[in-house]
Amino acid sequence: MSNPLEYLKESVRNKKIYTLPDIDYDIKANQNENPYDLPESVKSEILQGIESTDWNRYPRLGSGGLREKIGQSMGLPAGQVMVGNGSNEIILAVMNALLQPGKQLVIAEPTFSLYRHYGEISGARVEAVRLKEDFAFPADEITDKSQQPDTALTVLCSPNNPTGSTIGETELREILNTAPGFVLIDEAYIDFCSQDFCPLLDDYSNLIITRTFSKAFAFALGRFGYGVAAPDLVNEIYKVLMPYNLNGFSEIAAGILLQHRTDMETTINRIVRERERLIGRLSELDSLDVYPSEANFFLIKPEIPSDELYEQLIGEKILIRDVSHYPGLDNYLRISTGTPKENDNMFTAIANILG
Ligand code: PMP
Fold first, then answer.
1. 332 near 326, Cβ under 8 Å?
2. Which of 180, 245, 283, 284 has a CA-to-CA distance to 207 between 20 and 30 Å?
3. Which residue from 156, 282, 247 is spatially nearest to 209, judged by alpha carbons?
4. Closest ligand 1 atom, residue 161 Cα
5. Which of 112, 118, 211 to mutate to test the pocket of ligand 1 (most atoms within 8 A of CB)?
6. Is 296 touching ligand 1 by the criterion CB < 6 Å?
7. For ligand 1, is residue 112 a contact (CB within 6 Å)?
8. Any atom of ligand 1 within 6 Å of the Cβ of 298
9. In this prediction, what percent of the chain has a pLDDT beyond 70?
10. Which residue lies with its CA nearest to atom 2 of ligand 1?
């Protein structure tokens, strides 16, 4: 009998599935989540909003109300906003709409692994430039590649996961000025730094920005993310997104969370202060290199084999991220910033392991 799996696209069969170890932990520092859960009062408000809505009806087609609210919070019309099941859905939809065999996707590695994953599945050529030794973006090289006529899409992450480095506005403008295709800036970690590229949307119709509520907004469970771009492109992307792609529960929750944006500043500031404190303490250890970051995570490179440190931390029920297989990150690990107590325990555990 023939094997029906042979009908799968080769680009899918060649891929490995995205996995994370499912391990018992006391400290979870492997997914760049917010260590502080939402306040009970906000959860209650969300639950009340959900309870007082009809569950037998579809949400409004096109998530109009929420797109308007997100747009208002950024000074943009609803027609420039796309919402989805995490920012991943928006990134995937953009790739689905733009990438095909014969076209090129430009990325800067090491970066978020899903860009290459989805890019290769689309059949497009994935052209990756390497970040510099200090993880700065090689702007000239990116400009060179993104201005090639085949480059339908350039995807850059700023602050970049997993390095925490950012691209400068001048460099980004240069790329946007010369790229014939689109440039997507993934701003999943934007709330932890002082950058904001949204004003550039006025100048560039080829700019797409994606953001998420999974990190600073402490709403990873709800899977809500959004993208902003020129209205013409947003219309096209909505042809690729499924009707009713955002479920009504997350739509209600996201609308309420937006109103609490200023309350969240306190936790965001706390996380940024803690990041600096933990980086400072770990930097004092001789047997470890620690890298600066503008996100809620940072890289370390121990003198001992990274898998030894990683495994020993798991033995202490501390889960961090093994990024040692990423291009250019041999022997590196990534740590997400936790609460002060978690960070103290993280420091003590690492210091003890490294002697
Ligand atoms: N972009 C980057 C750089 C990320 O690190 C993540 C999550 N790890 C995402 C996008 C996806 O986030 P979500 O789908 O939860 O919005």
1. yes
2. 245
3. 156
4. 3
5. 112
6. no
7. yes
8. no
9. 100
10. 188
Q: Is the CB of 225 under 6 A from ligand 1?
A: yes
pTM (2 decimals)? 0.97
Is pLDDT at 1 greater than 90 in this prediction? no
Indicate whether residue 158 lines ligand 1 (CB < 6 A): no
- The answer to whether the beta carbons of residues 139 and 129 sit under 8 Å apart is no
Distance, in Å, from the CA atom of 69 to the CA atom of 4, rounded to the nearest integer, reads 46
Cα-to-chain-centroid distance, residue 208: 14
Provide the pLDDT for residue 193: 96
Which of 82, 88, 185 maximizes ligand 1 atoms within 8 Å of its Cβ, making it the mutation to test the pocket?
88
Angle at CA of residue 326, ends 228 and 283, nearest 5°: 95
Place of tokens 């919402």: 83
Structure tokens at 180: 């014939």
Q: How far is the CA of 354 from the centre of ligand 1 (A)?
A: 31
Among residues of the chain, what percentage have pLDDT more than 90?
Answer: 98
d(CA 69, CA 79): 11
* Element housing 287 (H / E): none
Residue nearest to atom 14 of ligand 1 (CA): 86
Cα–Cα distance measured from residue 211 to residue 97, given in angstroms and rounded to the nearest whole number = 19
